[in-house]
User: Which sequence fits this backbone?
């Protein structure tokens, strides 16, 4: 029987992109999918076959100053997130007032979806684009443990945010207490877009959690790019879509790999202009953003911030990583990359040391054990059920709800 699913996610590439293959599979099976997210992601949502529902959410931005994620630095970001949620909830209620909705598939980091599902009284399927959390392992607890000492769960800034989010839910007739807002989100069905092998404390996760592996979907087929040369190994450099304003790092990359045997595709985002880089060598291609899956098809090494989406896409194509994490969650991904022998991690000083940077990349490229481990993970990922398993899990969940 045809169902109507409402997807809800903040408009961040690392949150929306992994869900689009699932959208495509549900649409292929004849279901209707509406997707509520920020306007930036509307073209990608439409291309996947969903009906876009633009809502006033914005792409998360890096904190000001040195980018440190202290509670004080995050306060403006949380304020903007709260305001976006406050404006989104009535928009959802208005848009779907005369619609039948069978289930909400909500990004686990987007409370608006969870609140909306409870308000409608329909099942909520949690979409988890990073490490899942349960009774034994909590991403929030790990974040607090690894973050600066003044970053504890009861910090006034964090507590105030949770209280106001709880109050906002109550205004919509949904009881989600302060402790619930500060706890690990989760539900009866959690679709996790990473392989179980990459998950911390993987053995502790029961059948409430379906590990689907990375989902690339039709986007990987639509994205097109080819290297200028096929006789040189390709290094792909990207710090993602949030923490990419690192001019000195990009200049170091140019110094490290100019006029070498490497060809380099370097994504610099929208906060650094090509003119600021100085003269760009012949073996470099520099853009604000590349079609990532298309570049990874050709890459020998990915120099990455270790965002989960980028990490999963690299492993899907069997590309070793050299990681340069910019925040705690990325530090955790870099730790898994190192522990599973999928690549190496740069120390902070190496980001601006051209000789050492080139050396670390070449070490990873030449390491046969890393190549083997990444290749084996690539094969493992191909054996996962992916979007088909995800759609099966959703349909079975609704049948038994």
Assistant:
């Amino acid at each position: 029987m045809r169902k109507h699913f409402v997807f809800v996610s903040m408009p961040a590439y690392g949150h929306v992109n992994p869900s689009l293959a699932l959208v495509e599979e549900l649409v292929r099976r004849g279901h209707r999918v509406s997707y509520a997210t920020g306007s930036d992601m509307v073209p990608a949502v439409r291309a996947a076959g969903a009906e876009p529902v633009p809502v006033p959410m914005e792409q998360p931005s890096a904190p000001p100053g040195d980018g440190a994620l202290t509670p004080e630095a995050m306060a403006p970001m949380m304020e903007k997130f709260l305001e976006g949620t406050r404006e989104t909830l009535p928009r959802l209620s208005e848009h779907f007032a005369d619609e039948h909705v069978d289930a909400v598939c909500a990004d686990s980091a987007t409370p608006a979806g969870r609140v909306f599902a409870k308000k409608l009284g329909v099942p909520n399927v949690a979409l988890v684009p990073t490490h899942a959390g349960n009774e034994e392992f909590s991403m929030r607890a790990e974040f607090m443990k690894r973050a600066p000492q003044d970053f504890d769960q009861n910090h006034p800034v964090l507590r105030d945010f949770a209280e106001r989010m709880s109050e906002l839910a109550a205004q919509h007739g949904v009881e989600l207490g302060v402790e619930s807002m500060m706890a690990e989100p989760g539900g009866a069905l959690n679709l996790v877009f990473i392989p179980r092998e990459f998950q911390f404390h993987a053995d502790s996760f029961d059948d409430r959690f379906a590990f689907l592996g990375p989902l690339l979907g039709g986007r990987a087929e639509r994205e097109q790019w080819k290297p200028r040369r096929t006789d040189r190994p390709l290094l792909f450099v990207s710090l993602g879509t949030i923490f990419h304003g690192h001019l000195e790092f990009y200049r170091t990359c140019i110094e490290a790999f100019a006029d070498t045997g490497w060809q380099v595709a370097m994504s610099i985002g929208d906060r650094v202009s090509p003119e600021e880089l100085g003269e760009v060598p012949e073996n470099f291609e520099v853009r604000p953003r590349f079609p990532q899956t298309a570049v990874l098809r050709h890459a020998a090494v990915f120099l990455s911030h270790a965002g989960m989406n980028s990490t999963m896409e690299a492993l899907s194509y069997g590309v070793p990583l050299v990681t340069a994490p910019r925040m705690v969650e990325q530090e955790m991904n870099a730790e898994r990359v190192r522990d599973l022998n999928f690549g190496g991690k740069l120390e902070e000083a190496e980001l601006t040391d051209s000789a050492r940077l080139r050396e670390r990349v070449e070490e990873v490229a030449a390491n046969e054990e890393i190549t083997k481990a990444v290749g084996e993970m690539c094969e493992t990922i191909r054996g996962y059920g992916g979007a088909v398993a995800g759609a099966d899990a959703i349909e079975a969940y609704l049948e038994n709800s």
About this structure: The two ends are 15 Å apart (CA to CA). The CA atoms of residues 148 and 387 lie 38 Å apart.
